[in-house]
Design a protein that fits this description.
This protein is α/β, with parallel strands linked by helices. It has a single domain (about 1-285), classed as Alpha-Beta Barrel (TIM Barrel), CATH 3.20.20. It is about 40% helix and about 20% strand. It contains 9 helices and 10 strands. The chain has helices at about 20-25, 40-50, 85-95, 115-140, 160-175, 190-195, 220-225, 255-265, 270-285, and strands at about 1-5, 30-35, 55-60, 70-75, 75-80, 100-110, 140-150, 180, 200-205, 235. Helix 8 (about 255-265) packs across helix 9 (about 270-285). The longest helix has 24 residues, at about 115-140. It is globular and about 50 Å long. The structure holds zinc ion (2 copies). One zinc ion (ZN) binds near residues 6, 35 and 238. The site of one zinc ion has 5 residues, from loops.
Length: about 290
């Protein structure tokens, strides 16, 4: 079984071809986790997942959606929303039985404005992350965590902030705190810190990009993932973004997580089937399905 532990198949990017993309995924015997990024996309993730027994939903508010800004991502722009976390609304989504995770939530220094407004936006992200943590513990759900560094390479890594926050919450909630750092692009030390905190690492298409000029990560991600225990890795895409190297420049589809699985398997000197077995078990441990 092939797993995409993080995709946005409910997004407008699939408006015309969603059915055909779903058909390819089904043919490849996939299991998908469709991730919400704000109120509406959380609801549509649940609606989509409810139609297929091999699809699940994760609901929450992406850190960039807390501040209303113009966002440019992979050539397309959209206006983020300035949303708050409406717990009662998210309770109703969890009640559908389709929800296996809370997120994507986290910290994103890349998209915040410069100066004082940026600092305020970042503090707001921290508060809203805390609300997601509480909500996840309340429902015994896994967190799907997004961490992105600032544009300025001299800025301290956002992982420093996230690890500090998780340590704090770990003291409060112990083993009830669980989840995945999605699209992990940090270095080996950060990988270890998350694993020590009981978290899993989601690996996406970025791992297949050439090391030179890879703007998403400072260290060579393939080397980092080489040292991560196999029982801590999940495959993902973040579709429609970040298509693996083979399809770079095209819309990313969830079935492209096959390229990620192949890459890791080759890197670790094992068959792709064996790697997929690990990922299937890991998915079950984190998300309970
Ligand atoms: Zn993300
Ligand atoms: Zn995402």
């Amino acid at each position: 079984m092939l797993i995409d532990s993080h995709c946005h198949l409910q997004f407008r990017a699939y408006k015309k071809e969603r059915e055909s993309v779903i058909a390819v995924c089904k043919e490849k015997n996939m299991l998908l986790n469709v991730i919400g990024t704000h109120t509406d996309t959380s609801k549509s993730a649940v609606d989509l997942a409810s139609k297929y027994d091999w699809m699940y939903a994760t609901v929450g508010i992406h850190p960039i959606q807390h501040t209303a800004i113009e966002v440019e991502e992979e050539g397309s722009t959209f206006k983020s929303r300035g949303e708050v976390f409406d717990e009662a609304f998210f309770d109703t989504l969890v009640a559908t039985g389709q929800v296996i995770g809370v997120g994507e939530t986290g910290l994103d220094k890349y998209h915040i404005p410069e100066g004082v407004a940026g600092k305020e936006a970042f503090e707001k992200q921290k508060v809203l992350f805390g609300e997601h943590v509480k909500f996840a513990v309340k429902h015994n759900l896994a967190l799907v965590i997004h961490v992105r560094d600032a544009r300025d390479p001299d800025e301290p890594s956002t992982h420093e902030d996230m690890i500090a926050l998780l340590k704090q919450y770990k003291e409060e909630y112990g083993d009830q705190l669980k989840g995945v750092i999605h699209c992990f692009t940090g270095g080996s030390a950060y990988a270890q810190a998350y694993i020590d905190l009981g978290f899993y690492l989601g690996v996406g298409g970025v791992i297949t990009y050439p090391a030179k000029g890879n703007k998403y990560t400072k260290e060579h991600l393939a080397d980092v993932i080489d040292t991560v225990p196999l029982d801590k890795i999940l495959t993902e895409t973040d579709a429609p973004y970040l298509a693996p190297q083979k399809y770079r420049g095209k819309r990313c589809d969830p079935w492209m997580s096959e390229e990620v699985a192949k890459f890791i398997a080759e890197q670790r000197g094992m068959s792709v089937e064996e790697l997929k077995k690990y990922v299937r078990e890991n998915f079950k441990k984190v998300f309970g399905v």
